[in-house]
Design the sequence.
């Protein structure tokens, strides 16, 4: 089988700096896929862009955590007591979310975020999850099947891989646990008939990308790592944003986010994938290939 790669622009709708970067990447043909954080301040502008440009493959980035609570806060759409802290904001980390949340309120929020996007006129292409909070890797083991059930009912593909690969195992997670969740996801994908990628790269965890000193070093390491993906469909994700005062005020990772914007604008990137016979696709092609395979 050929090598296919989905490079998804996560965190669309987070802020103006993220939105402007994603707008530009789509308009210049540099990306094929993105997902919107529906509870965030600039989500409606992102949704309107999707409505105005239905040819672009854009989905919902289910958001149940708020890691920038102090600097860039948001709350839930449903105001569920277990999914917000005492300040009315979402919990900052996955561990906090899973320690407090109930399944009922979590899934109600999942449905509310999808409902809002649909109500605003968006034709959702795929569903994925901010920070992996809905994978249930911190004890809420029934969360993942419940999310798959939502995707089945609504007929959307979901981001979660089915095949473990040691090189893609996240830092701090045992390979045994990672392998279990990959295979568990594969079972759920078959049971609920929800298309998913074969492999998933948690880009934030790739060691060679963490301590780059220059953009050129980051780009070269990004391409080298992704140039070694296996046959099948692999998904990776980026968080493109412009290098603005707004972005610098939100997160200390603003430079990495700007470099991720630049790497997708870079002609060297697209030439590299073409030369290495890696086809960049969106979830539209994934669904078509997975459905045809069955």
Sequence:
């Amino acid at each position: 089988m050929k090598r296919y790669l989905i490079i998804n622009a996560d965190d669309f709708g987070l802020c103006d700096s993220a939105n402007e970067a994603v707008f530009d990447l789509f308009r210049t043909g540099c990306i094929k896929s993105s997902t919107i954080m529906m509870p965030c301040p600039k989500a409606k502008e992102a949704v309107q862009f999707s409505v105005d440009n239905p040819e672009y493959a854009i989905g919902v980035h289910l958001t149940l955590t708020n890691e920038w609570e102090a600097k860039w806060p948001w709350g839930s759409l449903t105001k569920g007591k277990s999914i917000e802290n005492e300040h009315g904001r979402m919990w900052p980390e996955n561990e906090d979310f899973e320690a407090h949340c109930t399944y009922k309120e979590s899934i109600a929020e999942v449905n509310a975020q999808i409902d809002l996007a649909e109500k605003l006129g968006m034709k959702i292409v795929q569903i994925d999850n901010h920070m992996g909070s809905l994978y249930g890797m911190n004890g809420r083991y029934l969360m993942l099947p419940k999310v798959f059930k939502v995707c089945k009912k609504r007929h959307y593909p979901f981001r979660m891989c089915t095949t473990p690969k040691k090189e893609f195992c996240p830092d701090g997670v045992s390979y045994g646990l990672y392998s279990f969740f990959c295979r568990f996801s594969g079972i759920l994908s078959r049971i609920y008939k929800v298309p998913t990628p074969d492999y998933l790269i948690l880009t934030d965890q790739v060691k060679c990308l963490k301590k780059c000193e220059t953009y050129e070093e980051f780009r070269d390491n990004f391409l080298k790592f992704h140039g070694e993906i296996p046959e099948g469909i692999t998904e990776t994700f980026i968080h493109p944003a412009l290098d603005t005062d707004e972005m610098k005020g939100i997160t200390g990772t603003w430079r990495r986010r700007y470099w991720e914007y630049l790497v997708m604008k870079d002609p060297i990137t697209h030439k590299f994938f073409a030369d290495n016979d890696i086809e960049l696709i969106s979830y539209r092609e994934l669904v078509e290939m997975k459905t045809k395979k069955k």
In short: The chain has a mean pLDDT of 96. The chain is about 45% helix and 10% strand.
